[in-house]
Structure formats: structure tokens, C-alpha cells
Amino acid sequence: MDRLEAMSLFVAAAESGSLSAAARRLGTPLATVSRKVSELERHLKTRLLNRSTRRLTLTDAGHAYLAACRRILEDVGDAERTAGGEYSAPTGELIITAPIVFGRLHVLPVVTAFLAAYPQVDIRLTLGDRIVQLAEDHIDLAIRIGRLPDSRMVATGVGSIRHVVCASPAYLAGHGAPKTPKDLETHSCITFEGLGSLATWTFAADKADIPVPVRSRLRVNTAEAAIDAATVGVGMTRVLSYQIVAAVRSGALQPVLEDFEPEPWPVNLVHAGQGRLPVKLRAFLDFAGPRLRERLAQATW
């Protein structure tokens, strides 16, 4: 039995909640995962997982063994990275995730410049608006927009992003510009999934958050679609500031209610930060941090 492989499969099963989910995550046949975990339990002469038709749960022995496996696998990975030179020179693959639009507009240009400066490093950049777990998905670095929950992750701030209500000049000429958030109740609005409630928008006034009901004349599932619809005069929409810089500068969209915007969302580079950082990650943090700060500082009107 390859004990390290069995440990890795056990950890994946425990973190995924099922053998089938672990098999999908690792790209390994379900039968192999099940057999290897069973062999590990026989080797240890104890049950690590309680199996049911709905979900796996850890036994008391499983909880203790999971923590030990994580330490052992991390030590092995650390030793391999040291032997491979990842702690002496930037080399190897770096896996990064970022939100779709922000990643395309701001992260990708920084990544391409980094690749030119560090020819021994390869990057896998995954763009998606779903929050992924760094350890479970084997991600080295995540670019996160929004307030971060308390965790053991290490975050480096690179700027902030505003929530902006905007509309086309033609729409505002025909319907008038709202003076207060409450005025939105009489306007046609374009809402989209992923940026708070579809039924209310929250504003700041008198140091308190105020939810304001809005009428969704059009609902879409991406910010790009909402921006396109607002540009042609369908109604008012609310998006993140970096998404409309070009449209505002060109005059296609006009921000309103800027005095009532809620507190901006921070933008952070987030990584696990446990133990020594591989040189490739340290190099990217040092390279990307100031460049993203500069890009965000310039992403205004």
C-alpha cells in the first residue's frame, strides 16, 4: 500500500464529504478511492470514516488522524518544494483565482507581465465568481473582492472598489436623476444575480445602512449584461466601479447618488501563509501588489 497516496485520498474524502466527491476532485476512479481508504483503515486497525448513503463523517480516530495526515502531507510537500528549488528561485506552477471581470481587466495584464519577467514560472489563472477554498482546491493565491471572514488566511490589501448606481444620459434626461436613494422606487432598475439582493439596494446615510426597494424592470445574471442594458437606456443599474470606468469616461453612463454609496469593498491578495512561502509566490506578491494598487488607483473617473 502506498501510504502517502492513501493519506491523500483519505484527506480528500474527509474534506469533500463523500468518496464520490473526492474521486471527482482528484480525477481518480471511485472504486480506487474506496479501496485505498479501506486498506488504510485495515492497516490502522480502526475505522476512520462513518459511511452513510448521504455523507461521510469522521470517527474520533478519524479526526485525530486527519490532523496528522495534513501535517505529514504538508511536510512532504514542503520537502519536495525545497528539493525542487521552489525556496531558492522562482520556479514551478502558480495557481491563481480571481473574479471574472476583475481578473480579465486587471489581473491578467499583471500575470502576463509577470510571466515575461519570470520565465521559469508557469501560471494557471482560473477566473470565476464562486468563492473557492484555497486548501481544498489547491489554489496558491486568490484575489478577493469584499470583506473577508476571519480565518487563518493572510491578506494583502491592494485597494478598494465602490458600489455605483448609474444610468445613461438619455434615461436620466427622460426620467430625471434621483436625488436620494428613496427616489429609486419610481425608477426602472436593472438588477443582476451576485451583487446583493435583487429586491433592495443598500445605501449609507447617517452612519447607517438603509435598504431601499427597487423595481427590477430587467433581471440578468451578469454585470456585463446589466451595463449593456443601462447603456441603451433600459433603466438604472448598480455595479462595481471598476466595471464601468470606460463607459463613464466615454459618457455612455453617468453615476448618481454618489454621496449615498455604502462603504467601498476592499480588494485583497489572499494566501494560506502557513510555513515558508515558495519563492514563486513571494515573487508574485511583490510583483503584483504595487501594480494592482496602481491599476485600482487609476480605475476611476
Labels describing this entry:
DNA-binding; alpha/beta; 5-stranded mixed β-sheet; 301 residues; D-Maltodextrin-Binding Protein, domain 2; Arc Repressor Mutant, subunit A; LysR-type_TF_proteobact-type
Structure in words:
The chain folds into 3 domains: 3-83, Arc Repressor Mutant, subunit A (Orthogonal Bundle), CATH 1.10.10.10; 92-161 and 265-298, 3-Layer(aba) Sandwich (D-Maltodextrin-Binding Protein, domain 2); 163-260, Periplasmic binding protein-like II (D-Maltodextrin-Binding Protein, domain 2, 3-Layer(aba) Sandwich), CATH 3.40.190.10. The chain contains 9 helices and 14 strands. It has helices at 3-16, 19-26, 30-44, 60-83, 100-117, 169-175, 223-231, 245-250, 279-298, and strands at 49-50, 57-58, 92-98, 121-127, 141-145, 154-161, 163-167, 188-192, 200-205, 208-213, 215-220, 236-240, 254-256, 265-271. It has a 5-stranded mixed beta sheet, covered by helices on one side. The longest helix has 24 residues, at 60-83. The chain is elongated. The protein starts with a helix and ends with a helix. Keywords: DNA-binding, Transcription, Transcription regulation. It comes from Mesorhizobium opportunistum. Residues 1-59 form the HTH lysR-type domain. Belongs to the LysR transcriptional regulatory family.
